[in-house]
């Protein structure tokens, strides 16, 4: 299917959404004045991740008198990172900001991000949460544990307390588009690219409306995706578990031989039962970890898209050029520097 590609804008704001009907009016009321005051041409790419409520219709209602609002709808729910990928790949700005819809990350910070990027000549500006007092104690502690673990995996370049609120230059976007990763975790992937970066600190607010889209189940899934995508540590752990169980069994064998020579009676069924259970458990854990990595390799080799775009309101606009590249992604040719 053909898509219409207009000229590049100065700024794109990509907002993944899933069942966000309640928060959209407040989001538009705060975001639009901020962007209008920048004095640059911009677009807002609202990516609907297969919502089951009226998210899309509410977006269309606001888009009637806000021509910069662009609605991108995925055919099914594909996950937050996949929706973010869809928006980043189709954004047409020289600078691209990713922002959650819940208003916990203040849109007013975008102006400071753009200023820092231009004045400091950096390609990435991270929004760093200086205050998380509005989060629950459990959320703060789990977030602290997540960033501690990820810094050990990725290295010291990972900014602490930086989520998906960031500004990227067109150079970074073009690199991200060329990467083969099917399920990227951008809070780890972007720092690993090594582009010059800066930070802008802000106070994290409470969710403006609606329900959180990151319950415990999704936080655990994010932690696993982050670990499996960026480290072979689980496989090394499996190796150490295998070696430890082997040494334990070797010690039990030596103990049994000594006991037999000394004439000491060993309760056979209990020790054998425990040893078999221990070895079986270690083997299953190792097989499970190996299977996770093999499954990721299989999914990558298949090269199936992580998301399917069902609708893009940009397709309805008259433009200068049409492309049909399968993914229907704007093609700007060689990377265009956002600096200057």
TrEMBL record:
The chain crosses the membrane at residues 237-259, 271-294. InterPro entries: Glyco_trans_2-like (IPR001173), Glycosyltransferase_2 (IPR050256), Nucleotide-diphossugar_trans (IPR029044). It is a multi-pass membrane protein. Gene3D superfamilies: Spore Coat Polysaccharide Biosynthesis Protein SpsA, Chain A. Keywords: Glycosyltransferase, Membrane, Transferase, Transmembrane, Transmembrane helix. Its main location: membrane. One of its GO terms (molecular function) is glycosyltransferase activity. It is found in: Membrane. Residues 12-175 form the Glycosyltransferase 2-like domain. One of its GO terms (cellular component) is plasma membrane. It holds the Pfam family Glycos_transf_2. Belongs to the glycosyltransferase 2 family. This is Glycosyltransferase. It comes from Micromonospora arborensis. The lineage of its organism: Bacteria, Bacillati, Actinomycetota, Actinomycetes, Micromonosporales.
């Amino acid at each position: 299917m053909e898509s219409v590609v207009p000229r590049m804008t100065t700024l794109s704001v990509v907002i993944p959404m899933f069942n966000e009907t309640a928060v959209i009016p407040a989001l538009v009321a705060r975001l639009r004045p901020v962007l209008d005051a920048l004095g640059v041409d911009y677009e807002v790419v609202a990516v609907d991740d297969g919502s089951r409520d009226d998210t899309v219709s509410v977006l269309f209602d606001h888009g009637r008198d806000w021509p910069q609002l662009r609605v991108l709808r995925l055919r099914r729910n594909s996950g937050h990172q996949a929706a973010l990928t869809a928006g980043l790949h189709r954004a047409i700005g020289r600078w691209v900001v990713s922002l959650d819809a819940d208003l916990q990350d203040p849109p007013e910070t975008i102006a400071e991000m753009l200023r820092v990027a231009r004045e400091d000549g950096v390609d990435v500006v991270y929004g760093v949460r200086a205050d998380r007092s509005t989060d629950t104690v459990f959320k703060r502690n789990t977030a602290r544990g997540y960033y501690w673990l990820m810094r050990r995996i990725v290295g010291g370049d990972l900014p602490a307390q930086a989520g998906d609120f960031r500004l990227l230059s067109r150079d970074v976007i073009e690199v991200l588009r060329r990467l083969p990763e099917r399920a990227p975790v951008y809070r780890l992937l972007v720092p690993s690219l090594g582009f010059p970066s800066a930070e802008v600190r802000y106070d994290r607010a409470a969710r403006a409306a609606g329900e959180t889209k990151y319950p415990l189940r999704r936080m655990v899934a994010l932690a696993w995706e982050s670990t499996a995508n960026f480290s072979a540590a689980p496989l090394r752990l499996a190796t150490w578990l295998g070696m430890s169980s082997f040494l334990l069994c070797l010690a039990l064998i030596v103990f049994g031989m000594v006991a037999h020579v000394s004439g000491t009676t060993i309760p056979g069924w209990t020790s054998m039962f425990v040893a078999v259970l221990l070895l079986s458990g270690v083997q299953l854990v190792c097989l499970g970890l190996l299977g996770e990595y093999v499954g990721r390799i299989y999914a990558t080799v298949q090269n199936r898209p992580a998301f399917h775009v069902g609708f893009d309101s940009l397709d309805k606009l008259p433009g200068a050029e049409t492309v049909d590249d399968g993914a229907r992604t704007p093609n700007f040719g060689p990377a265009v520097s956002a600096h200057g």
